[in-house]
Amino acid sequence: MSLSRVLAIASNVFREVIRDRVLYLIGFYALVMAVALRLLPEVAVTAQDKVILDVGLAASSLLGLLVAVFIGTGLVSKEIEKRTVLVLIAKPVSRMEFMLGKHLGLSAVLAVLVVAMTAINLALLEASQIEYPLVSLLVSAVYSFLELMLITAVAIAFGVFTSSILASLLTLGVYLMGHSSRDLLALGRLTESPGFQQVTQAAYLILPDLSRLTLRNDAVYGVLPGPETLALNAVYAFVYTALLLLIAGVSFARREF
Asked: 151-170 burial by CB neighbour count: b if 16+ within 10 A, else e?
């Protein structure tokens, strides 16, 4: 494992994604928030500040999700489909370095997007003289990035096994189920069937518990989990991401081209 080779791949991915005009999403986000600040006060009169805060965080998360899913799935699958991966694996680059570089490159793009959209959100809130819990919003942005980083690993892992379109659909499915995994576990506990309870427990262990990383509602009201909970959730995100990349790297190494 060579850090220099990983960073070289990550740098190439970063430049490639930036050239795809992904940063136009920042301008789109600014436009959405400007329209929201103009229209929402007329719709939500009593709780307009909370609604605007929630819209800002939700829009940032959604745009980041689109990038993580639809670009992340193509990072590996398109290389395989176009056979350009043959050029890369002929070089002294291990397949695990390849996976890590791809993931780090797209994660860097997502970090830029999250930082830029958070800055725009705070600037618009300040200009509109809307009170907001600064620390809570910043912590929510960090955990939103951790969630996107995990989803990127899911997208890359699926991209190793199947086509870009199917990998995108599967990644979106994991995202939706990951936000419902706790509800699925609670449903299993309500039933009297041991078999169904085992199935729901297994699904909860396999699926990512993305509710750990979604702090939008907490941030809007300025009430975050304790430091220990936040630390454990961050560790959970890093460990789950590492496991996904390990699975993707091992599977990619076993593929014949």
From this structure: bbbbbbbbbbbebbeebbeb
